[in-house]
Amino acid sequence: MALSYEIGIAAGILFVIGYALLNFGVLSSTSPLYQTLNLLGALGFTYTAIAPFNPGLFVTEAVWAVVAAYGLWKIWAGPRHDAPETAPGVAPA
């Protein structure tokens, strides 16, 4: 497949950058950038698993991409809170 090696290298770089930034405390798991790095890395590795077909890598990275996409959806579709959260039925102090 065209550019398979380059896409695989780029995908690996995206994964490592995201993981490093998470572990160094620069990003959190709820960061859209972190989830985007994971999504793009997973899509890149999924592409490289197509030809020659590597079922283990393909399934792993396809699931990884779905999980990352779900993480992004949760971040963007989740409730926005301007005030601190309180327990139901408890008035803020």
From TrEMBL:
Record keywords: Membrane, Transmembrane, Transmembrane helix
Any keyword Transmembrane? yes
Superkingdom of the source species: Bacteria
**TM regions (residue ranges):** 7-27, 57-76
Coiled-coil annotation reads: none
Task: Give the InterPro entries listed for this entry.
Answer: CBU_0592-like (IPR058058)
| Domain CBU-0592-like positions | 7-77
Q: Provide the protein name.
A: Putative transporter
